[in-house]
Amino acid sequence: MKIKISLALGFFAVLIGFVAFKIDDDPFTQLLKKLDDYTTKYQQEKVYLHLDKPYYAIGDDIWFKAYVVNGKTQTPSNISKILYVELINEKDSLKKLIKLPIMGGISWGDFKLTDSLGEGNYRIRAYTNYMRNFGTDFFFDKTIKIGNSWANKVFTFTEYKFSKENSAETVTATIHFEDKNGVAYKENEVSYEAQLDFRSVAKGKTKTNLKGDAVISFTNSQSFLNKKGKIVATITLDNKQKIVKSIPITATSNDVDVQFLPEGGTFVEELPQKIAVKALNGSGNGEDISGRVVDDTGVELAKIETNYLGMGNFTLNALPGKNYTAKIKFKDGSEKDFKLPLAQKSGYALSINNIDTAKVMVKLMASANLTNGDELKIVAQQAGNVYYVSKAKVDKQVLLANIPKSKLPSGIIQFTLFSANNEPIAERLIFNKSKSDVIDIDLNSAAQSDSKKGLSNFTFKASNVGKPVVGSFSVSVTNASKVTPDEDNESNIFANLWLTSDLAGHVEKPNHYFLKDDLKTARELDNLLLTQGWRRFLWKNVIAGAAPNITFKPEQSTSISGTVTKGGKPVPNGKVMLMSTKGGFFVLDTVTNAEGKFNFDNLMFSDSTKFVVQARTKADRKFVDIKVDAVPYQIVTKNKNSADIDVNVNNSLMKYIKESDNYFNEMTRLGLLERTIKLDEVVVTEKRNVAKNSSNLNGAGNADYVLTEKDLSTCVQLSQCLNGRIPFVTFRGGIPYSTRSPNTPMSIIVDGMQVEPEFLDNLNAPDIETIEVLRSAGNTAIYGINGGGGVLIITTKRGGGVANYNNYAPGVVIVNQKGYSASREFYAPKYDSQTTGSKQDYRSTIYWNPQVVAADQGNAKFDFYNADEAGTYRIVIEGIDAEGHLARKVYTYDIK
Hints:
- This protein is mainly β and 896 residues long.
- Among the domains are: 155-240, Immunoglobulin-like; 558-628; 705-801, TonB-dependent receptor, plug domain (Ferric Hydroxamate Uptake Protein, Chain A, domain 1).
- It contains 8 helices and 55 strands.
- It has a 5-stranded antiparallel beta sheet. A 5-stranded mixed beta sheet has the order 4-10-9-6-7. A 5-stranded antiparallel beta sheet has the order 39-38-41-51-50, with no helix packed on it.
- A hairpin with a 2-residue loop joins strand 44 and strand 45 (735-738).
- The longest helix is centred in the C-terminal third of the chain and has 16 residues, at 654-669.
- The chain is globular.
- The relative contact order is 0.14.
């Protein structure tokens, strides 16, 4: 017999802050104190990058401003003073790495997209060394599209079709080949290889038809989920030139996975609960569905309708002994049944209504057999800061409480229900936005120019709750007629620091939730938090006192440290001297401590610099050993936002990249932009050496040829050092090619990590210990497909587990340290009556300023000249003040 839930209201005893618990030894009070101590001791950082544009073309510069925030205080972070920013391609290989100083929680820099890069889906990843302790899920990691028309002869457009035979999925790819002018490549030979999860699943040859299309098919016999890869297609042009195109495979099936997630985490019989729905297609993006829920007799109990990105919810009251099925209908008309999770016989359910603009309504439901007077607790916290605590004796099946939203901060708030034994038994995330956390930007556009090459002056006043603020802002101005804003997915300070930086996994189109302040969007955001994971910390770790493994210390400055020993024993009070000739000769000295350790801190230098460290005993004896500390590089993990990958990047950006050609050609004509210098082939032979510290999978030194540091001389670019020194290897545009495979770049492995061939010139010759050349099949076989064009195994002086130094003489080592990357100034021409004539200005980014300061009474200003093209110009202003309040302002105006 079904027992009805009483509608009588049993209100929580609300406690404003956990200090309201008066009994010092109360276990729950101690738990909340543990939470505060834990999150205070292990404060975490967040990084957000404001990018000047949503997408780019080869030849562009990526300009960015970094905002680094303390997750506990939500204010600009002072934990770390060094930021690392990486450019990673869609093969998860590192292209560029820059190191930047953080000043007051902000920094800025740029990446130049040289014509040695190819088109594709790239990632920009940013983090501090300290953030590495808490996992890469919470790094800033954004996928961006980079097109290539300037250095590209072949353009492709690919369509995938899927079919199924038994359990095997057949993928048919139709690849269209054409030149920049849209002329198809007809009856050209195409060789191809399809890879899934780095494994080859098909190889073959075909020809394009009269339309320029090549059809390629392959079979995936495994589950479609998370199966991604690429088709490497090589087309032979009429002049016999071979062009290699890498085409992403984002899915291998039409199947849609549907998940059902009870609110609070547990589905309980006879408690009417909200069940969230999330439907994902094979590429990992949401796909809207419809359907109905029936019991095991076929009676319909609820309708299912997702309203945005495959997310929605319905309410179901599970009866004892009943099973439930969701009959789902997909957009192609097909249908499929999904079993709902089985309901527990007894338990608690936590339900939250966050749609009201003034308050959060919390409901606790309990099974009838649990209305025994046990005292439960609910905690609402963000980053360990507790904003609401309540406790209630469960003597009714329904207990309610209301929380004013004005008492809650902006961002994600975690509600957790605790049992009488103080164990977490249910959890719910909500999102709150408070106007008190937002900086209002009052932009004055009275002095803007509506003419080409006209000077536009803007001022703005920054305030928070009516009071002026001192803040740091970044300003981007683009021609939106050339660069169409991707409003749902562009860089957005609110979407990142308040939402995605606290969520694990991919969040599709996060900016959508900040474009409108209406009921529909609020419901869509609530559905996201009903279905998305949370992993900033786990309550079980707080309860158990399980501290995170702090391997990487916060960096306050660039330093060189190490240990001096003699005969394996520490040398206390040893004399240590640091010397460098970078930017003029300088010398620093210190002494070792009782453990023989030394540290030279607060070093400021750019790029990579060679230092000499000299150590002596207290008695001035030089026969000592010096071990310099080295921090390993951060590995490149798989792209968590792979669902954002675009199969047809060049096609998607065709309008933009063709217009960009005009700008690049004009910049080249003016001598402001250079293309890659191609180097001629030079081949020499030399004897083989040994590489004892190598990560070579064949074994150290088992290579066709080995260079040591003695073979390398100091030069501007490593490729210049190597050109002519490695037999049967040529360099074109700084990229190595084996003469066995002249059209396939060699793979580059640096200290066991694969990087792109173009990354070679980011390394410095003095940093290299050995370079092993693998060309023969016997040596490259262990590297599989990645070794098809040959492999260069590079071991740096910090690689292979050894420190980044070179023994020079007794008591002397040479240290090669990566310094800060120089931040360039955005190039924007200035026009007056004498200069407005002949030069054509086709900029798409009209203006970029990473540091506009609102100081006196919150006032700030900036100005720039319009470009030489009409269109809608779009200004995006973002920023932060010392209290952690955030700002974002978008303004457009038209140039006639």
